[in-house]
Amino acid sequence: MRVLAGFLMVVIPGLAWLDAVIAFAVALHITFPGWPLVQRSAAGLLDQALEPEAEASIRQILDRHRSEKVDFHELRTRRAGHRAFVSLHVLVPPTWTVRMSHELANTVEREIIDKLGSASVITHIEPNDDPGAYTDENEP
Asked: Looking at the structure, do residues 80 and 39 belong to the same domain, yes or no?
């Protein structure tokens, strides 16, 4: 019906300028509701950092396990589509056995996965007495 009304206005002499105005209005009508859809679709194709709330939840989990002997650093997060990816370094005493370190890493990974739902969590265990362990791998 709107198209027919627009067509009648264009054929009436002196109202030809309405064609451009109506075309612009139709373009706006399509663009504004469609823009969020385009953004959501593009976000699904691109990696993004996790939402601040999700990162805060991860930091709370790490804080619960942090102690004089245990620390965490190099937390990196990203989201690709609906899946979350988390990587971090776990610093433990050099006297800990592989089993003790592995159990801590598994506990932390499980808690993060439980909190985020679908997630891939990678931990890297390092001795806390190695100065090189505190160096960010992306620093020159």
From this structure: no
| Per-residue exposure over 81-107, b if at least 16 CB sit within 10 Å of its own CB, e if not | eeebbbebbbbbeeebeeeebeebbee
Residue 75: inside a domain: yes
Residues 81-105 have pLDDT tens digits of 788 999 999 999 999 999 999 999 9
Q: Are 6 and 18 in contact (CB under 8 A)?
A: yes
Q: Which H or E run includes 38?
A: helix 18-45
Q: What tens digit of pLDDT does each residue of 13-25 get?
A: 666 666 677 778 7
Q: Are 105 and 125 in contact (CB under 8 A)?
A: yes
Using an 8 Å Cβ cutoff, are 75 and 63 in contact? no
